[in-house]
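Listing S7. Sequence submitted for prediction.
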Amino acid sequence: MSNPRLTSLRDEYIQSLKVRNLARRTIEARAFMLERFFDYLKSRHITEISVISKGIILDYQIELYQTINKRGRPNSVSYQNSMLSAVKGFLRFLKERDYITRDPSLDIPYAKVPKQLPRGILTNTEARRIINTPDITCVLGYRDRAIMEVLYTTGIRKQELNNLNLADVDYNDGFLRIDQGKGRKDRIVPLGRIACRYLEALPLCQRQPAFQKHGLGDGEKIRQKSEDKEKHLSPYLPAQLRHGNAEEQGRYPGGAGDTWP
């Protein structure tokens, strides 16, 4: 258990993030990362914020670098920097509220993030094979096909798809409205004609008994329920389709979905 004084300051910091209207997931991530930092302080028998020095933050950075994660691998540079960023934000808050006289993390640089191309990008043929997997003669298979068509032709993220309403679709001009996407920003994205065709017929499918049975009969949401995921809808598929979309957009500016016959 963390020191009560540190926990109290953390709670005050988390409250300040809520006041700033940061995304819920961002706030939860910051709280988790700070808890890991407090665990490190506890292992060093540090219970007072006034004792936290630049040297301790540097030692923590080294600890993050040397730690082997649950997968048996070193922590990624992005993970290390995220953990350090949470500590920096917390200490900056303490300095602004005059809990400490100076921020010991101020001059500590982040690790350099290597520039890497994404791996496992789907080719057009691979994407076609995956998207053709669902059985569109049944209503749930049709829904899965519509989901993958949208993911591939728009490149939107899984959570953005989960929040998508059919009312957000412009079938005439081929556009989707994404509300509160990444960074809590709204945006308009182009939608391919094939995905439009599947989405237009989706409300009719949602009225079928199979959709009612799975709680999908409201005729509005197209999101995928976790309890009836199929094998071909893996957790990594949205990212794979998004990367495949980027590749196809580079070759076909008119849209990935519109390149298909």
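Caption to Listing S7: primary sequence and predicted structure tokens for the chain studied. The mean pLDDT is 78. The two ends are 60 Å apart (CA to CA).
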